[in-house]
Amino acid sequence: MSTLRVGWIGTGVMGSHMCGHVLARGFPVVVHTRTKSKAEPLLEKGATWADHPADVASQSDAVFTIVGLPDDVRETYMGPRGLLSAARPGQILVDMTTSQPALAKQLAMIAGAMNVFVLDAPVSGGDVGARNAALSIMVGGDRSAFETVLPVLQTMGKRITHLGGPGSGQHTKMCNQIVIAGTMIGMCESLLYGYRAGLDVPAMLECIRSGAAACWSLDNYGPRVLRRDFAPGFFVEHFIKDLGIALAETERMGIAMPGLALAHQMYLMTRARGYGRLGVQALTLTLEEIVRFEAGDRGAAGSV
Amino acid sequence: MSTLRVGWIGTGVMGSHMCGHVLARGFPVVVHTRTKSKAEPLLEKGATWADHPADVASQSDAVFTIVGLPDDVRETYMGPRGLLSAARPGQILVDMTTSQPALAKQLAMIAGAMNVFVLDAPVSGGDVGARNAALSIMVGGDRSAFETVLPVLQTMGKRITHLGGPGSGQHTKMCNQIVIAGTMIGMCESLLYGYRAGLDVPAMLECIRSGAAACWSLDNYGPRVLRRDFAPGFFVEHFIKDLGIALAETERMGIAMPGLALAHQMYLMTRARGYGRLGVQALTLTLEEIVRFEAGDRGAAGSV
User: Fold this and answer.
1) CA-based Rg of chain A, rounded to a whole angstrom?
2) Would A68 disulfide with which of A72, A221, A248, A288, CB 3.0-4.6 Å?
3) Which CATH number is B6-166 given?
4) Predicted ipTM?
5) Cβ contacts of residue B82 below 8 Å, gap of 6+?
6) Cβ neighbours of residue A124 under 8 Å, at least 6 residues apart?
7) Going by C-beta distance under 8 Å and a sequence separation of 6 or more, which residues neighbour residue A144?
8) Domain positions in chain A
9) CB-CB: which of B181, B213, B303 is closest to A186?
10) Tens digits of per-residue pLDDT, B95-125?
11) CB contact under 8 A, A220 and B200
């Protein structure tokens, strides 16, 4: 098979890095994004520009999309000049946005009627994973279509798993986010407790991080919180979107998730305080506003 | 310095293993526990029996206690025939029960007036850690007393950390439990979501456990839940005790911990359903009773 002609839509923090890796491995890429200036670095590296998603589809064998919200996915695929308006039989469309499992299934079904494949392939690993081509990619949809685009996915990620039919990539991503909702609350509350108890918090963190409390959030966000670094690896407002999708799915399934619901509320509080564009570790700031625990206040409760 | 004469009080699941390691390394041990029959295996290995905590104190240089609730700690130390009634100047008493930081401080203060040292040294690592002498031990209290008993602690644990003054061991253990409260909720809700979404749950678990959702709970309890193994490594009712202590401390400090409070409530629900003597992964059962997801029901919501 000749080299796949790649289409790319969405050049945000994640998409720019990911598309850059595809280009760097020699795939020809045609790109579109809402704000053309954001695609400039990719155009300089050899990508060609298309004015609409439909133009991307007509020039590509496989199109990869990573946009913002489920509504953006709908518009990109089903809008007036959307991908499906120009898709050809046998073409493969891969949505890497974290989005609704139900939408992923709907797109796969509509496209299937045209003999077009739509895969859902959300990613995990954040901006660092995107930059280092170390993303985890969770794929749902037709297996042979998955195998066709696998060489492209391999330029962006390390662990690429096909999990089943349409929607199973998005569902797996939801499982991932539900765990993180729990680890983030546990980590932020634990650090707050440690400061207020007057502990040597770095020593405490070092002590607990290799035992039964060990988790990626503690390892990666704990040290950032200690040095008051709330810069985004993963935005609060994106996490709110993901948790909201998961909550809607659980309601549809007829099940209840008290922990997930609480995390969603706590992140809504965090956004309401103006921290939506900070990283998810900014949940700490929300807890702090119950009682500040900056360096000067450490051990104000003075118990140790 | 001649070999420390060790006193030991408390021979439950944890204590029996721990005391066994001390004996195995050649320390002379005098033991007491509420139910003498539970000490028999240790007596057969060479420990000698004492009828009361006071008798243990009078025959030892350092006494280690690991009992049940804070009230048991109070009784063991301050009861009519408690340790402090027979303690001598220079003697070291080490409470390894997970208990109240405030009680640890009170005991250290009262004992200090008698020139007796009390250290708080709760452990993490569960029954497996106790059996394999791989516990993490978090120690608060006088540093020179800590150094004196360190050779004994080293027979039971791998990571032994002195964290500061009296109570700092207990506070660090609370930080540890607060993180675990979050990881357990996240893990159990994630698995429930996965089953109800109709995912291949082992494949999902394998996919997410090496990314940003990685945590000890997912690695250690996830597979047990998949094979419906709810046997205790760490009892639900002990976790309820720990979370209750942490909540009381946060209230005393004047701070709020919504996640910790929710976890406490969810584990109270789990105990109310009769699962108090199962392992902490039995939180799954409580969530399931909202909707069962045993093998036969997998994917009943049938979405993938």
Assistant:
1) 21
2) A72
3) 3.40.50.720
4) 0.92
5) B53, B54, B75, B76
6) A135, A136, A138, A173, A176, B208, B211, B212, B213
7) none
8) 6-166, 171-295
9) B181
10) 999 999 999 999 999 999 999 999 999 999 8
11) no
